[in-house]
Please model this.
Amino acid sequence: MIKWTILALAVPLLAACSGPQSILDPAGPAARQVATVWWFMFGVASVVWVGVSLLWIYALARKPRHTSAKQARAINRRWVISGGIVLPTVSIILLLLFGVPTGRSMIPLPVEGQDPLVIEVTGHQWWWEVHYPESGVTTANQFIVPVGRPLDVHLTSADVIHSFWVPRLGGKRDMVPGRIHEIRLEASHAGVFRGQCSEFCGAQHTRMILHVEALEPEGFDTWLSERQSFASPALPPGAAGEEFRDTCGQCHRVAGITEGARAPDLTDLASRPTLGAGTLENDSEGLRRWLREHQDIKAGNAMPAHDDIDDDILEQIAAWLETLAP
Ligand code: HEC
Ligand SMILES: [Cu+2]
Model:
């Protein structure tokens, strides 16, 4: 019995503390503070739970004592004042002492000697647009950042309210149409993390996943400059090229080729790990499945089914899309 109880208690502790999306496995200063607040609250709640349980057992076990009505009133008053006023006041002050600096660390205030990198992220139903204004680079569904540099993330939405949250980097913020919210984050070591839209935004809200990758500063500079200097390969000749320019290009941008602005920028498509915001692996099979079956796989997404396009034309477009990698 005891063995099973210990095992049952151990499972959540072992299972939930690591992983690409765990707040208990922080990968940056803001996230570390959030985790500290969490552990503090967990500790206090555990003490309260044990304390209340002990009092409860004591109350059940002790012999009833006879008190006069006056004494009973005094005891009641003592409980109301200590449990109803003193205890909450002290706990809330303690929580604020932890919570306020944590919230403050995610506000993009100017800090001497720091040069934050601005990244603009726009939520769409149901994908992420990611833009680096200083270098003019745009990508989608991936958030690539340098290690050790503060990031000022400017958040907005093109349609409904979404919410940006990369638990291992720090707290979340809503993305509201017509407004720009800012949050300061930082990655303290290289690695792959995961973000997820955290405000219900429609049928495919669960398939709005953000691939987050922190690179060492040199690696990040290379990543950016490769994209700045990349010349997109020419469209396939003939009908396939025309189809892409006239249909797909209405929504999708490919630098130097099409200027669509309603859908993920495809300029560095082949270098991205997933398709449809984390829906499919971006490999040769995944790409072809996306082009043919995306309305079955991610029903209702804003890309119309293209059943009218011949298989061999779509195949030529797919083969060309696979060359879009700096
Ligand atoms: C009406 C606008 C529209 C048209 C036309 C359109 N798309 Fe899309 N496309 C989208 C949207 C919106 C998404 C994102 C869907 C999502 O993930 O929710 C998308 C996603 C994609 C993706 C995955 C991108 C990624 O990073 O996940 C590829 C590849 C793609 N489209 C290729 C094409 C091709 C090829 C054509 C032409 C045959 C085309 N699209 C036509 C709107 C469009
Ligand atoms: Cu959402």
In short: The pocket of copper (II) ion (ligand 2) is lined by residues 162, 197, 199-201, 205, 208 (CB under 6 Å).
